[in-house]
Amino acid sequence: MSTTDTDTEYQHPLMAAYWTQLNSGFPSVRAVFEDAMAEALAALTREGLSAYLDAAHFLGRMGRGDEPILAFLEVWPSVARVLGEDALPPVMQAIHAMHRSPNGKAIAPFIQTLAPVARRLHALEPLERYLDIALDLMVRTTGSIHGHHTTFPSPGLPAFFEQAPFLFTQLSMEGVRNWVEYGIRNYRIHPQRQEEYFALKSADSRAVLQRERHGVLFADVERRLDLYLRGLWQDAEQLVPYSTAFDTLRKPIPYYDRLGMRVPDVFDSRDGVKGIDRYRAVLAHMVGHRRWSTPIIADNYSPLQRLGVEFFEDCRIDTLLCREYPGLRDVFLRLHPHPGEADCDPDTTSCLRHRLTMLSRALLDDAHGYANPHILEFARRFREIMAHGASNTREIADLALSFSARTRLQSDQFARVHFDDTVIDYRDDNRHLWQYIEDSDDEDFFDDPDKQQKKESEVQSLPPRHYPEWDYSSQTYRPDWVSLYEHLHPSGNPADIDRLLDKHTALAKRLKRMLDLLKPQDKVRIRYQEEGSELDLDVAVRSLIDFMSGATPDPRINMSHRTSGRNIAVSLLLDLSESLNENVAGADQTVFELSQEAVSLLAWAIEHLGDPFAIGGFHSNTRHDVRYLHIKGYRESWGDTVKARLAAMQAGWSTRMGAALRHAAHYLDGQKADKKLLLVLTDGRPADVDVGDERLLIEDARRAVRELGQQGIFTFCINLDPKADDYVADIFGRQYTVVDNVQRLPEKLPALFMALTK
Amino acid sequence: MTDTEQYKVHREPYYQAQGREVQLYEAAYRNRLPVMVKGPTGCGKSRFVEYMAWKLGKPLVTVACNEDMTASDLVGRYLLESGGTRWLDGPLTTAARIGAICYLDEIVEARQDTTVVIHPLTDHRRTLPLDKKGELIHAHPDFQLVISYNPGYQSLMKDLKQSTKQRFTAFDFDYPAVELETTILAQETGLDATTAGKLVKIGGVARGLKGHGLDEGISTRLLVYAATLIKDGVAPREACYMALVRPITDDADIRETLDHAIDATFV
User: Which residues in chain A have Cβ-Cβ distances shorter than 8 Å to B208?
Assistant: First the structure.
């Protein structure tokens, strides 16, 4: 292992000097040293070279095996070429920092991914920010588990470095920072989940990534695209996004089938075309196929011929589309690649795609500038055909076949295919163009019958709905954080409820009187009133004329207003958590029984008024299992089925209020009513077993109430917790009442409702 | 005596027939049958009536109906004067006296009890009783009643009573077909046919969105406005934004879609 052994082997004195400077004993380093130096000599200055060797020397002596030094020797020259040699000090500082902390394991992945990251970042300044993010992640996730200080390495850091190149393809620097921040905040004390998060394996990790992606997200423009289809193309189709983030090898292509049009979930602007316009181009092209393409039998063609037919047919469609909307031409031309004529060497590579792309360009673009006689001839023939009208798939296919026959080359069959600049990404995969008579053994056969059967048998219960939760400490939503399952409430004996109602007959009578007095809200003018709020000028003048012409004047010269028509939808949300089972002080009933009575009375009263009214209960057992129990729907009448469910009401578990509010609002939002009221009956603060910070769920509920307000839903809380003043105002603002004397709840609740809707 | 001349239509209004409505109207007029014209806003209902009045050479009395209109606004009322009162004929009475075509525009806007006063004029009686004045007017032989309404309101409150509906013969108007609408724009404003065709295409886009956030598509009237602006030298895109998109919607998504259609059409 001594340096003297190796000195002699390098004949060139300079090389020997470098080897001495590197001073490494790993045989594996020895094996790559010469190649690495050759690249380094080409890429680095003399000072840079010296610094490179010093850095490598340090990495070799760190005691972490040969992995770091090998990776460094290999990647640094190319990194330095992109970022400059000035990047070495900050990178080495970061490595030193990792080396000093227990995170030495992360050094190798850091260096290994440095080259692709550098290519993405392009400059020194973003690299420094990347290092800042990484070191921040390291510092905040290292150590303090169970009070052992800086003994455990950061579980997420190596995973983060491995994902870094991918992250930078999807996110901006800001997006990466937010994504990392989210991971640190939520999984700081949970090593296994943290690692999953940073390795992009957990669901919310992907969800946050999706949220932070750059470009135009499908979800944001869905309605506009619907309108686009409908308005500009008189077509309507279900649009289904597919994810583009996780298939890096084989990017999915837009397509349509009988289930809808599939489009990517995000589009960046490219070549001056905005993301939304790229979506529109994709949709327009698919609509064009639906309008003008007819399927042809695929079995008669070879795959290469089919490719030719597709290119020609796509160009025909694009031409027709541009006739319809000339503005599309500019978009198509910007998105369409313009490969150089000499880019592909037909002696070594299959140039079929290259040739067809050039042709496609020539068919669309008069100023294509190609000189190939075949391309020129077929562009001319194509234009002649198109000059006569819309043509058809058949005719174009014939043209394509003669092009294929004319330009066929032996090399088209080569395995090495020239792909650069040949992907026209606004076009779909043309699966609709082909009709197969016999089952082909092509790999892309789409509808696997086995798969379909499997899918059908899997669906047995309602899938969960996911709701976000508000994290007040970072002022962001945690996307899809809570899983809410909706169940039908089990049934009991409806007679129990009738008995409860009987018990309150006196109260019911009193309520009935109040109900009759309840005034609807729409204003209607009543004319011809002797007494009223305003003078009706027309009638007044008429009366005066009658009076002056000697007739008896009509004294009813005023008008007033009355209101008519009630248009309120109400949803009652019951907290069914464990605390309801406690006895009420000074009574032999539990809070729960009293709630049951109160709800029954309220339901009875609202039924009388005829307002659409729903009842739901909720409780939760961690964020993975929030249950929403359906008791009464808006369309269900207050009959035995509903009473039976109410009779079987049971309490248990905890109170995760935000998700339940959002879910109830989801249904209420679908109601067509002028006023929407969400009543929440609860006996305590929002809490759940998996949440340590008691403010968190309160803030989330408060946020939910605010969201509901923005949707035009008025939320009102009836709280049975005498100590509720601490938090209830925080959540509901002034829209709450605390019922101290729980025994009076049955009469309070309906009265409260009436007061609210008067 | 009322000045009949003021109600006459002196210059020929431009009207492009969409079908046989001109002949049919003439037949209805020969027999003095009351006529109802239905159709979306800005599709040429009022223009049609005006054109027919010109063609038949009859005076035209137009009343724009509204919710606060009372029966006396149509029939007439006493006015106060220093010495006492004076009777003033309403437009309907005037038309019946001078033998004009009385055109009640957007009749559903008037309250239902108001519209009942036209009933005696629209059947075999052809009379109008002025109960306040104690006079029974027999309509002039040339008198005809025409009403228009836009069934697009889709509201229970805004519909005609059956007893009113069943007194009229009716024409159903809609926005003209593409070529016809192009001709109309070109004729009306002197715009070249290509640009006019593009405007009509944009109109079609908005009409396709009706019910998806738009209550009513872009009317022929608005297209004419846009054409007028373009003719005046305004850039086509700006003219379209101004005349076609901004007036009809405040919905950002729809506006964006229509703007895009304009950008894609006017390159």
Answer: 230-232, 234
CA dist., res. B65 & res. A634, Å (int): 40
Question: What's the confidence (pLDDT) of residue A498?
Answer: 85
Task: Establish if B36 touches chain A: CB-CB under 8 angstroms.
Answer: no
Give every residue of chain A whose pLDDT is below 70, as ranges: 1-11, 143-151, 245-249, 439-461, 514-523, 562-566, 584-587, 757-758
Whether A228 contacts chain B with CB within 8 A: yes
Higher pLDDT, B83 or A395: A395
pLDDT at position B192, please? 93
A35 within some domain = yes
With beta carbons less than 8 A apart as the criterion, state whether A318 and A331 touch.
no
Look at residue A466 and tell me if it is in a domain.
Answer: no
pLDDT of residue B142: 94
pLDDT of residue A605: 80
Average pLDDT, chain A: 83
pLDDT of residue A380: 92
* Cα–Cα distances in angstroms (integers) from residue A727 to residues A470, A693, A702, A736, in the given order: 17, 14, 10, 11
Answer whether A515 touches B (CB < 8 Å). no
Q: What is the pLDDT of residue A149?
A: 54
Q: Which of A224, A227, A537 should be substituted to probe chain B, the one whose Cβ sees the most B Cβ atoms within 10 Å?
A: A227
Same-domain pairing of A9 and A128: yes
**Is residue A150 domain-shared with residue A277, that is, in the same domain?**
no
Residues A532 and A617 in one domain: no
Q: Are residues A236 and A188 in the same domain?
A: no
Enter the tokens of residue A65.
Answer: 């095996």
Show the domain range for A543.
Answer: 523-564
Give dist(CA B262, CA A231) in Å, integer.
12
Q: Cβ(A433)–Cβ(A393) under 8 Å?
A: yes
pLDDT tens by residue, A388-434: 888 899 999 999 999 988 888 888 888 888 888 888 989 998 988 88
Which residue in B has a C-alpha nearest to residue A233's C-alpha? B205
pLDDT in tens, B213-259: 777 889 999 999 999 999 999 999 999 999 999 999 888 888 999 99
Can you give the CATH number for the domain in which A501 is found? Answer: 3.40.50.410
Q: Is residue A326 part of a domain?
A: yes
Q: What is the pTM assigned to this prediction?
A: 0.61
Place of tokens 């000090």: A89
- Contact criterion met (CB < 8 Å) for A231 and B261: yes
pLDDT of residue A147: 55
CB contact under 8 A, B85 and A549: yes
A661 and A743 share one domain: yes
Rounded to whole angstroms, how far apart are CA atoms B191 and B189? 5
**Which of A145, A179, A212 is a domain's end point?**
A212
- Strand, helix or coil at B173? coil
Query: Which residues in A lie closer than 8 A to residue B213 (C-beta atoms)?
Result: 227
**B12-29: average pLDDT:** 93
Judged by DSSP in three states, A523 sits in: strand
B265 → closest Cβ in A224, A280, A325: A325
Interface of A with B in 367-406 (CB under 8 A): none
Q: What is the number of structural domains in chain A?
A: 4
Clarify whether residues A390 and A327 are in a common domain.
yes
Crossing angle of helices A275-292 and A218-233, rounded to 10°: 40
Tell me the CATH architecture of domain B4-172: 3-Layer(aba) Sandwich (3.40)
Write down the pLDDT at residue A460: 46
Same domain as A610, residue A633: yes
Do A560 and A572 lie in one domain? The reply is no
- Other Cβ atoms less than 10 A from the Cβ of A565: the count is 10
Q: Scanning every residue of chain A, which has its alpha carbon at the shortest distance from the alpha carbon of B208?
A: A231
Instruction: Name residues whose C-beta falls within 8 Å of residue A103's C-beta, 6 or more positions apart in sequence.
Output: A138, A142, A153, A154, A157
In a domain, A487, yes or no: no
How many CB pairs below 8 A link A and B? 64
Q: Which of A208, A75, A123 is nearest to A477 (CA)?
A: A208
